[in-house]
Structures are given as structure tokens and as C-alpha cells.
Amino acid sequence: MGRIERFEDIEAWKKARVLVRDIYNICNIDQYKRDYNLVDQTRRAAVSIMANIAEGFARRTKREFINFLGIAHGSAAELQSHLYIALDQKHITRANFNSLYKNVEEVSKMIQGFINYLKTLKFTNSKTLKLQN
């Protein structure tokens, strides 16, 4: 792993960004977009993953960063739950569900792996997160 100078350098954030795009696209399907509350909650959960990774990075302390990554991890589980509702209500196909669920699972695992990794690091008080043991 190299130096992370901006939140945009974090692989989990990059994958979460793609996930948000995919969630917005699926929420535009006719039968899904009529369920306004579910669409809103689904989008919010996806956006929360991405936003909490960025916000945690900006906090510049290991403890806060890990805390925000934990929130992002929780939002991933929330998003998976919303996908089950969308599937059960026949807003999305099983294929859409499987693909999105798998992508959320991948982001979730990346976040958890990053949390575990950060717990082993010593942070410096510099402008960049130096990934050193």
C-alpha cells in the first residue's frame, strides 16, 4: 500500500463511488423509483459509505478515522438490508440484487480490512497519512 494523500486515494472510497453510481442507476428503474422512501433510504445508505470514508480521513486522527470507517461499514450493512426490501417488493431482479449485494460486500470487506490495517499503524501529524508500521 502506498501513501494516501487524499481520501480519493483510498481504494475502498473508489469502490464506494462506483457503488453509489450503480445504486443511483438502479433506483431510477420505474418500479423502484415510485417507492420514494426506499429510494431515499437506499441512496442515503450508499452515499453514507462514501462520505464517511472521506470524513474520517479528514479528521486526521487514527481513532476518529477508524470510527468513521466503522460507520461506513454499518451503512454497507444497511444498504444490503435495503436491497433485500427492493428484491422482496420486486423493484429489482434477482440478478440486480446479486450483483449489487456482491459489490456492497466487497466494499464492506475492504473497509473492515482497512480498519484492521489502520489499527496496526502509527500516525504522524503530517498532512498525509503515511502508511508505515
Structure keywords:
133 residues, mainly alpha, de novo design (two linked rop proteins), 0% strand
What does this structure look like?
By secondary structure, this protein is mainly alpha-helical. The chain has a single domain, classed as de novo design (two linked rop proteins), CATH 1.20.1440.60. It has five helices and no strands. The protein is elongated, with a radius of gyration of 16 Å. The termini are close together. The mean pLDDT is 92.
Q: What is the domain tally?
A: 1
Distance between the termini: 11 Å
What integer is the average pLDDT? 92
How would you sum up the major sheet? none
**Number of helical runs?**
5
Find the count of extended strands (DSSP E, 2+ residues): 0
Could you say which overall geometry the principal axes of the C-alpha atoms support? elongated
Question: Which value, in Å, is the CA radius of gyration?
Answer: 16 Å
CATH topology grouping: de novo design (two linked rop proteins)
Low-pLDDT parts are none
Question: What proportion of the residues is helical, as a percent range?
Answer: over 70%
CATH architecture: Up-down Bundle
Q: Secondary-structure element sequence?
A: HHHHH
Broad CATH class: Mainly Alpha
Percentage beta strand: under 5%
**Structural class of the helices, strands and pairings?**
mainly alpha
| CATH homologous superfamily assignment | 23S rRNA-intervening sequence
Please write out the topology:
Blueprint: H1 11-26, H2 30-33, H3 36-59, H4 62-88, H5 94-118
Helix pairs in contact: 1-3, 1-5, 3-4, 4-5
